[in-house]
Each structure stands twice: as structure tokens, then as C-alpha cells.
């Protein structure tokens, strides 16, 4: 029997088994589904929507092209990607997953990236946003804001390490070499590119804004579906003891690394879903340094839920998913090692100091600094989500149903 047929049989059996498990455990499946929905409409949707809309407008008005030209001397020698990669990297860090993949896919569709460059870029622009790391994980789960500095440093330095690793992916880039021979760009060249991009986009401002809203909300609806699906999937795996079986298998590896085996179930859970994995890790009785190492790995790996979202976004392009997946493993390892190395200088030493002696960038040590940002998102998130969905329905019906009536 061919490999393709075996794959078909496996997928059919897997989906059938999952369906039966959901039917047999309707209460647990509903609770998991509601939990995923709660995360999506309270936090994910309201926090990502503004970034997605603004990103679409920045691309349409040519500002991304402007930034890209200016960042060419930095991004090409270091990461072997065009200057627009700097914008995508910054937006990916600010807004979180899967913004880096969405913007990379858009730049590939705009022909501003080659296939290899896009695969390099998407590999190191996938990250959690600072608000999630500091607000949800450090303050919400670990009840220790000082951990946010350590987790964020390990996470974003891990991104850089992945970028430096993936610059060797794809071999020699002749196109890149040819472009590197050009003179350094200036503001004049950058402004020329900005102006030409704006002129070439014939859409009026109203249509451009409407397209940005519709495209952003469609992407967020897809993300919400994946969050709910993997929340249910994770719960079903726990009910039928698959999670426990996998946890038993990796306990030996954790013991070999001198990490508490109590973290095996949180690790397996985090491989599927990042939020629940970090929550479970924070609730174990393991040593704090072990919890931090596992939490850093989970944050960097991103969970199969986020990776499924990225795979869905990349499916509209010729960007392959495999390099992205391999890069997530690299970043998980890098971030875990960095968390171990930085635990003393960025956590223990800072905890010994008086809070008043901390520099401005360590304001995260104070929980009140996060609650003024995190609490409003959770509190008003559902209202923002509902209003945005109503706006989406209005714009979509006006655009499509209006054209049919005419």
C-alpha cells in the first residue's frame, strides 16, 4: 500500500475517532469550546484587530515600502531578507502570532519577497506579543511580574537566534547578491518608492479602509476557529489519556535534563495550546527555574494551534510550512537555553535589588503597570469584538449583496 493511501486512512481514522470522542463527551467538549471562545473574543480579537487593519493600510499607502528601503542595509547582511522584513519583524513582535505570517504572506503576494526569503522571514517573525508574556503569563499565571523581563528577553533573543540560523537556509541567493551591490538607499529613494506605491494603488481611501477591515476580520475569524478546535482537541486528548501517555514518554527526557517530571503534562499540553500549557506549568510544584525553562519553550514553540493558523495563512502562497515548523523547534530550544542562562542576571539579581533602583524599561516589575493595559482588554474585549463583527457584516453585505441588487 502506498504512503499516500496510508496517510488517507490515518487521517480518516483520526477525524472519525475525534468526532466519536466529542459525541461521547459532549459536556467536556462544550466547556473546552467555550474556553477557546472566551480567549478569542476577550483577548485575541481585540488585541490583534488594530494591528491587522493598520498593517493593511500601511502596505496600501506604501509606507511599508518606504520603511523597507531604509532597512535594506540592516536586514540583508544580517538575515538575508529584504528591508521590508524589518517592518514585519517589528509588527510581529508588537502584535503577536500569527501577524508575522500574515504580513509575510502578503508581502510574498505583492512580489516584494522571493519564496526563499519569505520562508526565512516567516521563521523568525513568529512571536508572542509583550502584553501576553508580561500580562497573561508572568502576572496572570505566575503571579510574578519580574518573570516577564526574563521570559521576554529569552523569547525575543530566541527570535534573533532563529533569524541568524535561517539566514543559511536556501543556499546562495543570487538575487540578493545582485541587489547588495547597489548603492545604499536614501530618503529620496525611499520616498520615491512610497509615492509610486500609493499612486499605483487605484483604490479610494474608503474602499482601502473597508478592504483592510474585511481582510483583518476574516483572518481573525479563521484564528478563532483554530483556537476553539484545538481547545476541544486538547481536552479530548486529556480525557482519553493520550496526553498522559505522551507525558510518560517524555518524562525520561526531562529527567535526563534534570528538569522536574511534574512538567511533562504541561509541556505536552503546551505543544498543542500555548495558553493552557503555560497555565498548567505555573501551577505545578516544580522548581521555579524548571517552570521558566518549560514556559519559555512553550512560548517559543507556539503550540500546534498557532502553527495550524500559520499553515492556513501560508496555504494561499507558495511558502512552505516545513521550514517554519523546524524553526519553531529551534526557537523553543534557543529560548529554553537562554532562560536558563539569564535566570540569575535577569531575575534573581533584579529581585535582590530595590524596585526603585530599576531602570525605566523594567517597569514590568510593578503589576499595576500591566493591569492598566491588560485589564481593559479583557474587560472591553467582547464589546470590541461584537461591534467589529457587526461592522464586518455591514461592509460585507453592502459590498456583495449590494452589487447583486444592482
Low-confidence stretches: 356-367
Global outline:
globular
Q: How many helices?
A: 18
Range of strand content: under 5%
> What is the rounded distance between the termini?
55 Å
Total strand segments: 0
Number of domains: 1
Q: How confident overall, as mean pLDDT?
A: 82
Largest sheet: none
Secondary-structure element pattern, one letter each: HHHHHHHHHHHHHHHHHH
Rg calc: 22 Å
Structural class: mainly alpha
Helix-residue proportion: over 70%
Keywords: Membrane, Transmembrane, Transmembrane helix
Protein name: Sporulation integral membrane protein YlbJ
Pfam families: Gate
Transmembrane segments: 6-24, 44-67, 79-100, 121-142, 148-169, 208-230, 236-256, 293-313, 325-343, 377-396
Q: What would you note in describing this structure?
A:
This protein has one domain (27-405). Helix content is 80%, strand content 0%. The protein has 406 residues and is mainly alpha-helical. The protein has 18 helices and no strands. It has helices at residues 3-24, 26-60, 63-79, 84-95, 99-109, 115-124, 130-141, 146-166, 174-180, 187-200, 205-239, 242-256, 264-272, 274-283, 288-301, 303-314, 322-352, 367-405. The termini are far apart. Helix 4 (84-95) packs antiparallel against helix 5 (99-109), helix 6 packs parallel to helix 17 and helix 11 packs across helix 16.
Amino acid at each position: 500500500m502506498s504512503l499516500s493511501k496510508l496517510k488517507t486512512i490515518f487521517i480518516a481514522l483520526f477525524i472519525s475517532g475525534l468526532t466519536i470522542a466529542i459525541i461521547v463527551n459532549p459536556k467536556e467538549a462544550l466547556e473546552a469550546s467555550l474556553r477557546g471562545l472566551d480567549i478569542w473574543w476577550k483577548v485575541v480579537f481585540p488585541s490583534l484587530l488594530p494591528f491587522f487593519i493598520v498593517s493593511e493600510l500601511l502596505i496600501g499607502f506604501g509606507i511599508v515600502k518606504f520603511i523597507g528601503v531604509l532597512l535594506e542595509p540592516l536586514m540583508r547582511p544580517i538575515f538575508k531578507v529584504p528591508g521590508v522584513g524589518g517592518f514585519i519583524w517589528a509588527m510581529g513582535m508588537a502584535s503577536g502570532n500569527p501577524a508575522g505570517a500574515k504580513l509575510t504572506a502578503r508581502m510574498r503576494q505583492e512580489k516584494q519577497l522571493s519564496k526563499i526569503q519569505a520562508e526565512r522571514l516567516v521563521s523568525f517573525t513568529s512571536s508572542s506579543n509583550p502584553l501576553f508574556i508580561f500580562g497573561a503569563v508572568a502576572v496572570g499565571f505566575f503571579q510574578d511580574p519580574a518573570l516577564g523581563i526574563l521570559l521576554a528577553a529569552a523569547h525575543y533573543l530566541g527570535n534573533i537566534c532563529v533569524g541568524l540560523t535561517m539566514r543559511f537556509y536556501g543556499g546562495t541567493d543570487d538575487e540578493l547578491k545582485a541587489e547588495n551591490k547597489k548603492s545604499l538607499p536614501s530618503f529620496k529613494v525611499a520616498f520615491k518608492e512610497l509615492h509610486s506605491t500609493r499612486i499605483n494603488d487605484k483604490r479610494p481611501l474608503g474602499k482601502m479602509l473597508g478592504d483592510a477591515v474585511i481582510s483583518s476580520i476574516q483572518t481573525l475569524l479563521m484564528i478563532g476557529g483554530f483556537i476553539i478546535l484545538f481547545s476541544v482537541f486538547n481536552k479530548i486528548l486529556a480525557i482519553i489519556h493520550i496526553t498522559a501517555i505522551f507525558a510518560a514518554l517524555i518524562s525520561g527526557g526531562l529527567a535526563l535534563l534534570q528538569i522536574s517530571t511534574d512538567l511533562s503534562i504541561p509541556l505536552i499540553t503546551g505543544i498543542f495550546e500555548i495558553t493552557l500549557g503555560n497555565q498548567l506549568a505555573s501551577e505545578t510544584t516544580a522548581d521555579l527555574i524548571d517552570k521558566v525553562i518549560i514556559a519559555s519553550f512553550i512560548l517559543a514553540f507556539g503550540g500546534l494551534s498557532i502553527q495550524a493558523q500559520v499553515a492556513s495563512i501560508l496555504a494561499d502562497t507558495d511558502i512552505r510550512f516545513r521550514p517554519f515548523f523546524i524553526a519553531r523547534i529551534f526557537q523553543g530550544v534557543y529560548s529554553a537555553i537562554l532562560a536558563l542562562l539569564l535566570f540569575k542576571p535577569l531575575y534573581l539579581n533584579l529581585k535582590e535589588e530595590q524596585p526603585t533602583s530599576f531602570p525605566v524599561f523594567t517597569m514590568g516589575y510593578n503589576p499595576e503597570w500591566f493591569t492598566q493595559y491588560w485589564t481593559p482588554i479583557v474587560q472591553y474585549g467582547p464589546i470590541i469584538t461584537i461591534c467589529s463583527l457587526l461592522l464586518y457584516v455591514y461592509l460585507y453585505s453592502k459590498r456583495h449583496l449590494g452589487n447583486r441588487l444592482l
